[in-house]
Write a structure and sequence with these properties.
The complex is a heterodimer.
Chain A (H helix, E strand, L loop, with lengths): L10 H4 L8 E2 L10 E2 L3 H25 L14 H29 L2 H4 L9 H14 L7 E2 L4 H30 L4 H6 L1 H6 L2 H32 L7 H4 L1 E2 L3
Antiparallel strand pairs in A: 1-3, 2-4
Helix pairs in contact in A: 2-3, 3-6, 5-6, 6-9
Chain B lengths: L6 H7 L4 H14 L6 H11 L3 E7 L5 H6 L7 H8 E6 L7 H14 L5 E5 L5 H4 L9 H9 L4 E5 H5 L25 E4 L6 H14 L12 H4 L10 H6 L9 H5 L17 H4 L35 E2 L6 E2 H30 L4 H7 L1
Parallel strand pairs in B: 1-2, 1-3, 3-4, 4-5
Antiparallel strand pairs in B: 6-7
Classes of the chains: A mainly alpha, B alpha/beta.
Chain lengths: 247, 365
């Protein structure tokens, strides 16, 4: 038990080649040392995005289904204006954070890239996804992964990254609509209305994508906490400190 | 057919003074949102240019566009159809009928090849070779293609010609099709609305007569001068929207106070039209001013875009008009219950394996 894989150990020493998601297969009875998985930029992006999504989901819900009216004259209140302002401001933050995240995808390593794609054509990868599904159905034994396991990668791509892109595109298209048809916003995002159709339809998909992200977030939180409590590696703290510890 | 006389010659012949003529030019310039010196330009065009021949065809439609058009106040529809343009064919309002009327089309197409305007009200149904609309013994789609072939430009009047409107609503049994999907090689200006605002219709014609070209269009082919802003942007109830003051039903206090109609389904925020600026019937009113939300009649597929009196679009596939919120909340609740069950099973498992069982550790290693 005493032998530890130090952070400086080259990954090849711990990672068995040929496995997707960098499955690690330490010798029996050996606890691998901590691995620095999430760089500071990724971690900041994660939490900024989380806060933005909370603000966006709450204000977005109220934009679609507004609160009961307050009485009086219009000049006494600017409630809906503030709700919309918060939504737009949080949307801008989410958008900028996303662009920076795309930059991290381009310059970053394996862990920074994982949630942007799935190795769709790889049979081996799908087998590992299936192994993870079996594990969560209390059957079988999956591998240990330094980054996201294949099932997590699948969920993060299909239920977070894709809906996030849909949310940003439809959101900015609707923003462009109110900014006006002659603006740069509209030149950048007006095509969304050509692809999806009339703006009520764009709103519909904006709402659907939000619910997909909400459901993802619920499962995501459960999985992360469950992983922390039952698995032999850290999950929640890894997104705070960046280090994944094994025990 | 001889030389078309100009607008100016015609109105002078009708006994209208030059002073009144210039007043009309200023009004037209103002209604088009042009700078004051354009009044002179309009006057010059009216004095020198021959009247533009217009062929006005009617396909599958309800004639509400024509009804709207003849109520134009600035300029008067009379001035447009009798003076500014030469309306040589319009089967709804022309005096000639039968073969005589149809001959007028051929005459104009021969004498003014490539110079006349084709105005289309309604659209062609394409199913079963267009048999669902047969004017003059021929399918409308054939007539439309025939007349469009030599037109200088095409005006799509109303939502029918522009988007398809009610006859193209799901399931669209006759395959009613907007004209831009039938006429591919001509400039088309869409003037959507059910019907379009009268002044918008005459404004588009005035612009063409004045400048000899179609006005600047947006990506979807609508004139920017009338369709670049949403009804919401210039709505006089906008202050209530920003304040968060909404009518919940059509008979509550908020409705009587004139609060925003957003929650009772107003489509103002998604509708590009000039209703809140130009208004209707000589600027008397428009739907929202009368206490009814905008239906979004100038937007594509407005009949299919969810219930008129609710804010959110629905998925018909999920039974009784479920909104995205309802489906999403239900799905989230199901997932929540699933997670709770899964967590319970996990806890049971852990309790069996623990405490500090080496079995688990070894298995994972």
């Amino acid at each position: 038990m005493s032998e530890k894989y130090l952070p400086s150990t080259p990954p090849e020493a711990r990672v068995r080649a040929g496995h997707f998601g960098e499955a690690i297969m330490p010798p029996a009875g050996v606890i691998p040392g901590p691995v620095y998985v999430y760089t500071a930029g990724i971690r900041i992006w994660h939490w900024v995005t989380m806060l933005a999504i909370i603000a966006l989901a709450v204000t977005g819900y109220f934009i679609g289904s507004p609160l009961p009216s307050i009485g009086g004259e219009a000049y006494d209140a600017y409630l809906f204006g503030w709700i919309r302002f918060t939504h737009f401001a949080a949307g801008m933050i989410l958008g900028v954070a996303f662009l920076l995240r795309v930059y991290a995808f381009i310059v970053g390593g394996h862990h920074a890239r994982q949630i942007f794609y799935i190795p769709f054509w790889s049979i081996g990868w799908w087998k590992e996804v299936f192994a993870e599904v079996r594990w969560y159905l209390f059957m079988g034994q999956p591998k240990e992964y330094i980054g996201h396991n294949p099932l997590a990668q699948f969920a993060m791509f299909t239920m977070f990254m894709l809906p996030l892109i849909v949310l940003l595109l439809t959101g900015f298209a609707l923003y462009a609509e109110q900014m006006g048809i002659n603006t740069l916003w509209y030149s950048l995002f007006g095509w969304v209305f050509v692809v999806l159709g009339e703006s009520m339809t764009v709103r519909l998909w904006h709402g659907v994508a939000m619910w997909v992200v909400i459901i993802f977030s619920i499962v995501h939180m459960y999985m992360a906490i469950r992983e922390d409590m039952t698995h032999r590696q850290t999950a929640v703290s890894a997104m705070i400190s960046g280090w994944r510890f094994f025990r | 057919m001889g030389r078309q006389e100009t607008f100016y010659e015609l109105i002078r012949r009708q006994g209208i003074s030059r002073r009144n003529f210039l007043k009309f030019c200023s009004l037209s310039a103002a209604s088009l949102g042009l700078a004051p010196h354009f009044a002179g330009k309009i006057a010059h065009a009216m004095e020198t240019k021959p009247r533009v021949p217009v062929l006005w065809l009617h396909g599958l439609e309800c004639t509400c566009c024509t009804e709207s058009f003849i109520r134009s106040a600035h300029p008067l529809a009379k001035d447009v159809i009798l003076s500014m343009v030469s309306l040589d064919y319009d089967d709804t309002i022309m005096a000639a009928a039968g073969h005589q009327a149809e001959q007028a089309i051929e005459d104009v197409m021969r004498d003014y090849k490539g110079q006349y305007i084709l105005a289309v009200e309604g659209n062609p149904p394409l199913a079963e070779d267009g048999i669902f609309c047969i004017p003059g013994g021929k399918p409308f789609v054939d007539k439309l293609k025939h007349v469009a072939a030599d037109a200088a430009a095409v005006i799509a009047w109303g939502s029918c010609a522009s988007w398809g409107c009610v006859q193209a609503a799901k399931p669209n049994p006759t395959q009613a099709t907007p004209i831009h999907k039938v006429i591919k090689n001509k400039p088309i200006v869409k003037v959507p609305g059910c019907p379009p605002i009268a002044e918008v219709m005459t404004g588009v014609i005035t612009y063409y007569v004045t400048f000899g070209e179609l006005p600047a269009l947006d990506k979807q082919g609508r004139p920017l001068m009338f369709y670049s802003q949403r009804v919401h942007d210039k709505c006089y109830r906008r202050c209530h929207f920003d304040a968060g003051q909404f009518a919940e039903t059509f008979d509550d206090r908020g409705s009587r106070e004139g609060y925003c109609l957003y929650k009772v389904g107003c489509r103002g925020p998604t509708t590009y039209n000039a209703c809140s600026t130009t208004r209707w019937n000589e600027g008397v009113s428009f739907p929202i001013a009368s206490g009814h939300g905008c239906l979004g009649c100038s937007e594509p597929d407005f009949w299919d875009n969810g219930p008129f009196y609710e804010r959110l679009q629905t998925f018909p596939q999920f039974g009784a008009e479920a909104t995205a919120n309802r489906i999403g909340a239900t799905a989230a609740a199901v997932v929540g219950v699933g997670i709770a069950a899964h967590a319970g099973l996990t806890a049971l498992r852990q309790a069996k394996v623990k405490p500090n069982s080496p079995a688990e550790t070894d298995k994972r290693a």
